[in-house]
Amino acid sequence: MTSFAAERARRTAEIDRWLAGLLDAETGVALVAVGGYGRRELLPRSDLDVVLLHGGRDDIAGVADRIWYPVWDSGAKLDHAVRTVPQARRVARTDLKVALGLLSARHVAGDPGLTERLRAGALEDWRSAAPARLAELHAAHDERTRTYGELAFLLEPDLKEARGGLRDVHAIQAVAAAWVAPAPGPRVRTAYEQILDARHALHEVTGRRLDRLVLEEQDEVARALGLLDGDVLLRMLAGAARTVAYAVDHAFRQADRLGGRLAGRRLRRRPAERRPLADGVVEQDGEVVLARPADPARDPALVLRAAAAAAQAGLPLAPRTLTRLADCPPLPVPWPGSARDALLALLGAGEAAVSVWEALDTEGLITSLIPDWERVRNRPQRNPLHKYTVDRHLAETAAHAAALTREVARPDLLLLAALLHDIGKGWPGDHSITGEVVARDVGRRMGLPEPDTELVAAAATCLTVTGSSRSRRVATTGSSR
């Protein structure tokens, strides 16, 4: 995939030199880049977000005009402010957008001491008021999710504002600036660059400052990124967005948990209480972690056992737990009954299973359990009847089927048939035909008796969204006819 990172860095450096020349040799002032410009992320149609700092000069308006007018004349979009350091801090205390912009403040030209005073003061203010500011940040995240939806599952996603988009990585960085959670790790940074590159290509292709990736632009944006087509682009974005969404949820959980310490009270640290959930699995601080004696390298079923315990308890899997579960060896084929039972317990948890399934997918653990899952993973569905990617659609179908398990004679077959009913969509040709073959292979891998395997495979021949009802009929009557 083509990266535009070097081009963004070059463009930022050029703008820095230009603006520094406009400021010239003025004393007692500083030009500060904030927001995306501060992060050196200038896209082809990005605004220039700048603050002209001064120490109280009476002639500051004339200095500002010598900078702003050439920028306006060039046609560049300018988001500017002229303030003293105390004024800038006062505004940031009441305006979340300004506060977040100052967390990315970077010196461009003039007196570096003024810039450093602003940066240090903005960070001090952010940390001292962290409980309230992080709650405000979380509320803003929730509102954006309601307004823009989830990037991973939209056919025309907003790359910046949707859940899992660029704004969420900025939120993680803001939580980290409050000393609450780590800064974005390598996977999140890679996901961020992928989404940012897609937004960059969208600017290049359209010649406009756009954040929404509409259908008619997707193939051309994909080609600009060196990808085959719009489907490949959406699949890449879905994976990136899911990585970001999982990370921002974890960051906000840490912010909520450590709110007391952030309020300025030094709490005495007590040993974390652990509540057993399953063999080798415990709850700690509202998350599911592995018990101290647990050894993932010797326990291939631990990944499913931990996932089932998390879903049944309605708790998230901690990131460190997911990392450790990646050390589990592959399950033997066919699976032992304990692994199959754990999978059914996970799916039987209903809606709570979906977030746990997503967490496993973020670590690549689903495809290690079910290799055929790779074909449907993050695969978009260009059909208005479908709200999700194929893999999330299958997880959601199983979650909804869990509510019907008391109405059928074989709840285990209902759950598995719901999970696999569209598994053939990852293969060329008629997915009702390929799905039957793939579902049969998966059933045998899981160690289902042959008659049960055939029933689950028959459910995968469904061609429409009535797959769950057909799966229910199979589980109830024992017949696919």
Question: How would you describe what is shown here?
Answer:
56% of the residues lie in helices and 8% in strands. With 481 residues, it is of the alpha+beta class. The protein folds into 4 domains: 5-128, Beta Polymerase, domain 2, CATH 3.30.460; 131-262, Four Helix Bundle (Hemerythrin (Met), subunit A) (Up-down Bundle), CATH 1.20.120; 270-365, no CATH class; 370-481, no CATH class. The relative contact order is 0.07. The model is unreliable at 463-470 and 477-481 (pLDDT under 50).
CATH top level assignment of the largest domain = Mainly Alpha
Q: What spatial order of strands do you see in the largest sheet?
A: 3-2-1-4
Instruction: State which percent range the strand residues make up.
Output: 5-15%
Listing every helix as H and every strand as E from the N terminus to the C terminus, the arrangement reads HEHEHEHHEHHHHHHHEEEHHHHHHHHHH
Individual helix count: 22
CATH fold title of the largest domain: Four Helix Bundle (Hemerythrin (Met), subunit A)
CATH architecture of the largest domain: Up-down Bundle
Query: Biggest sheet: strands, sense, closure?
Result: 4 strands, mixed
Report the mean per-residue pLDDT as an integer. 92
Amount of helix: 55-70%
CATH superfamily of the largest domain: Nucleotidyltransferases  domain 2
How would you describe the shape? Answer: elongated
**Whole-number count of domains:** 4
The structure class reads alpha+beta
Number of strands: 7
Radius of gyration: 26 Å
Distance between the termini: 46 Å
